[in-house]
DNA sequence: TGTACATCAGTGAACGCGCGTTCACTGATGTAC
DNA sequence: TGTACATCAGTGAACGCGCGTTCACTGATGTAC
């Protein structure tokens, strides 16, 4: 890892690593070309061997953050069995990610003027959608509702994560029972029936 | 308005006006001290007579954007009669504001290191909360649920506004029926019962 | 197996620019007497 | 009603800094023959 020879260093990975490390600490503040080049002890120009522009670099770091989120969601899902629990685990993990890693979360959804070099893998959106498709397979929602349900649940979780992790004095409290209450209300919005009736 | 004399101009208002104008066009990109001072044909130092720092100026412009949002929500509410319609009008207006004024919306919730000089007036959050309190007065929700419901509905609407107004290729479609579907699902999450049963 | 050479992946210095902020200073306004 | 003077609200130039990007160049690697 420390073998920073003149040549043949895995500079791209090192830049992304440094970017993620910086993102954790201070969000999207210090993700510039010169700053990160200095961080990995490299000339600024070297960055352009691997990224088309500073925006491209930022976009790839943002992607790293999203993929980390996706991995945590996948990990959380693996511990649950019922489709409802699996679905709620994705939302809970999403919110916890935003609260535990505010810098990384803000970078994950920062606006970039350039696209990343490849598609997200794993993709947090796909993980979310898959858990909705599972609800569909179980007959809890109809196939035609999949897109609507995904958008609704994603929006509610994403909005809560943004607001609770923000600095507004009126922001929602980030307490477990509040989060569970939110997930419960999302569930009502998904199945459109009260749980008691469903049972 | 054009009386830009040496002295006695309402520079503070002019700066905020220019900031809002710039925010509409390009979000939070060009809200710096030097840029806005130049925009209103004034020396940069003059800005510091009215704002403690560049961050303070940005915070006040952000506040202007939030207050504009709040005014539109109030206006929309005034056309509705039933509490449900009034509530949904706030959410619909919030989303439409984000879609029609993406720059202003992003500035409204941009992170600022300094607080604004006064409280929001009108406050979008208060408008939202008031419409939830109306639901409570009508007996549709319990008093103890007010905070939970406000957080849930605010999160869902805010998240949808952020995602739909973003640049992600997987973002929700910004079509009326999608938005109405979202508002309907939020309503289920609020009352926790299907509408048919309620009637 | 050795060598010539193209290519790759970096160096190091510099550019123009806009940023937030500060300096000493000044023209206009308001007020006390 | 006039005047002296404090205060207010600006000017204009400059600072140090970090930004994205570009220049010509070079050390290391890989490959054809």
Q: What would you note in describing this structure?
A:
The structure is a homodimer of 199-residue chains. Chain A is mainly α and 199 residues long. The first copy, chain A, has a domain at 63-198: Orthogonal Bundle (Tetracycline Repressor, domain 2). Chain A has ten helices and no strands. In chain A, helix 5 (83-100) runs antiparallel to helix 7 (124-137) and helix 7 (124-137) packs across helix 8 (146-164). The longest helix of chain A has 24 residues, at 54-77. The mean pLDDT of chain A is 93. The structure holds a DNA duplex (33 and 33 nucleotides).
Distance between the termini of chain A: 56 Å
Oligomer: homodimer
Label the overall shape of chain A: elongated
Global mean pLDDT of chain A: 93
Which superfamily, in CATH terms, is the homologous superfamily of the domain at 63-198 in chain A?
Tetracycline Repressor, domain 2
How many distinct helices of chain A?
Answer: 10
Rg of chain A, please? 19 Å
> What do we call the CATH topology of the domain at 63-198 in chain A?
Tetracycline Repressor, domain 2
Helix content of chain A: 55-70%
Largest interface: A-B, 37 and 37 residues
Give the number of DSSP strands of chain A: 0
């Amino acid at each position: 890892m420390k073998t920073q020879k003149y040549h043949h260093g895995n500079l791209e990975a090192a830049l992304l690593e440094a970017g993620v490390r910086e993102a954790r600490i201070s969000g999207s503040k210090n993700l510039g070309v010169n700053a990160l080049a200095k961080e990995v002890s490299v000339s600024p120009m070297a960055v352009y061997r691997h990224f088309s522009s500073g925006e491209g670099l930022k976009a790839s770091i943002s992607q790293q953050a999203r993929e980390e989120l996706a991995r945590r969601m996948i990990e959380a899902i693996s511990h649950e069995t019922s489709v409802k629990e699996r679905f709620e685990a994705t939302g809970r993990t999403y919110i916890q990610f935003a609260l535990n890693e505010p810098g990384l979360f803000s970078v994950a959804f920062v606006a970039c003027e350039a696209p990343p070099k490849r598609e997200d893998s794993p993709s947090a959106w796909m993980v979310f959608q898959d858990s909705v498709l599972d609800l569909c397979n179980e007959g809890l929602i109809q196939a035609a509702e999949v897109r609507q349900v995904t958008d609704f649940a994603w929006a509610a979780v994403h909005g809560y994560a943004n607001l609770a992790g923000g600095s507004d004095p009126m922001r929602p409290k980030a307490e477990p029972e509040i989060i569970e209450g939110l997930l419960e209300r999302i569930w009502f919005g998904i199945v459109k029936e009260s749980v008691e009736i469903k049972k």
